[in-house]
Request: fold
Amino acid sequence: MHYKRILLKLSGEALMGEKQYGIDPARLSEYAEDIKQVVDKGIEVAIVIGGGNIFRGLSGASNGMDRVQGDHMGMLATVINGLALQSALEEKGIQTRLQSAIQINEVAEPFIRRRAMRHLEKGRVVIFGGGTGNPYFTTDSAAVLRAIEIEADVILKGTRVDGIYTSDPEKDKTATKFDTISFKDVLSKGLKVMDTTAFTLSQENELPIVVFDMNKKGNLLRLVSGENIGTVVDN
Reply:
């Protein structure tokens, strides 16, 4: 296997599948199966999932809502998604732990770094909910922060496109894909990989990011097995 410990970042919108909002059970089951394949190979897996399928603080703020209140609602949305993913994984026979950056002791453990690492060492999948626990920070920032804290080898950002392109491939048919690209080139070309805070944090800590298509069955396993899947961002 190419990696020993990974941090998988999933967007909340990805869980919608073909729906307009909420959670598509079929998509959730597909993701759980793909994650199981990787766990079965002995790779330690941590996951950060967004909440955009339920609520996004920034969009709430743009409609007149207090930004801090909106972000707290978004954090709760990530916990809901974490619970859904936890249930889907455990249906596949995978032991999981949900840790939250905001205290919801009845449904999730508090985030404790050493405990999270111990769970990973025991082969459990750890899902991090609640973002960073602070408003004004995205789940991209939470993913990078947690990856650094647990000493992950890489951040795997699962999206609906198969990598980073010169422009949006859904709008520009002439867009070309990068197999590898440096952090510096991403910034100079103005390419959107993660929000700037998350991206800079990853760059400063020399933590590589791989952007890949999570919706293609088996891609996750092929990626961690060393196949040239997606786009690698590194120094």
